[in-house]
Write a structure and sequence with these properties.
34% helix; 2 domains; globular; alpha/beta
């Protein structure tokens, strides 16, 4: 899956998986590592004791902004939020240890005020929403298996159904989605495709077009609309009410309260 690019390894890109548990709770997983939780429209934003409160609150605000774009205290897509809640979707924030049972987000890569590429909150929280929400609320549209509308669009973006659906080292000329990390399978690449397309349309990738071109060529809204009309149409279709504005970490629509446990 798209790996985040941070100075953790003092390189331009740090590859990190779509997350532990794909953004959803796993039956039987011991989640006692989490000592603080914020409920966001039924989605649990969890943190270990070492996670600073301000960073946990920041992550919760990003989650809330994605789900409630007009900041009126009502989730914009009730089907998606009810699906997230029913699936036990959660974000697990830690200071370094591997998160359990939730989509992962590390304190060290959560940097309020910075854009994607230096702030993983935008990516990992959107993965939670798309993978555990949209993919299951609209399975024939946003489902991450072969044959859905978004997967068909992704196959076109990859220059065809390459490598049996797996990442390949070389893509055909003209492909604009060229994911080559072999640890990311077809479903993982579909989640990443949703992320790349939507955040590019939100204006979040325009500052690093050359940096991300190894994976994704359409770094702004105009390019997505012109080159990948199928994806653009899915993400802007009012029937699915996909968020269109990048969060900024300022949210006051609902109270976001930290609940602590021993």
């Amino acid at each position: 899956m798209l790996r985040k690019f941070f100075a953790l390894l003092a390189v331009s890109f740090l590859l990190h998986g779509c997350g532990s548990g794909g953004g959803e709770s796993e039956s039987g997983v011991d989640s006692s590592m989490y000592k603080k939780t914020i409920d966001v429209f039924g989605v649990q934003v969890k943190g270990t004791a070492a996670v600073p409160d301000d960073k946990l609150l920041y992550a919760a605000k990003i989650m809330a902004e994605y789900l409630d774009q007009d900041n009126n205290g009502v989730a914009d897509n009730p089907l998606v939020t009810s699906t997230l809640k029913a699936r036990g979707a959660c974000l697990g924030m830690t200071a370094g240890e591997e998160p359990k049972g939730c989509q992962s987000l590390y304190v060290s890569e959560t940097n309020p005020g910075l854009l994607p590429g230096r702030n993983a909150a935008f990516e990992e929280i959107l993965h939670t929403i798309s993978e555990s929400g949209y993919a299951h609320a609209y399975p024939s549209v946003f489902g991450d298996g072969k044959g859905t509308l978004i997967s068909n669009a992704m196959d076109t973006a990859r220059g065809g159904y390459q490598g049996g659906g797996q990442p390949v080292s070389a893509y055909p000329a003209g492909a604009w989605y060229t994911y080559n990390d072999t640890t990311c399978d077809y479903t993982c690449m579909a989640t990443e495709y949703f992320y790349w397309g939507l955040t590019s349309m939100m204006g979040a990738q325009a500052h690093r077009c050359s940096e991300i071109s190894i994976e994704w060529d359409l770094c702004n809204k105009r390019l997505v609309e012109e080159k990948d009309a199928a994806l653009y149409g899915l993400l802007t279709n009012p029937a699915y009410n996909v968020p269109q504005r990048l969060p900024d970490g300022n949210y006051s629509g609902i109270p976001l309260t930290i609940v602590r446990s021993e």
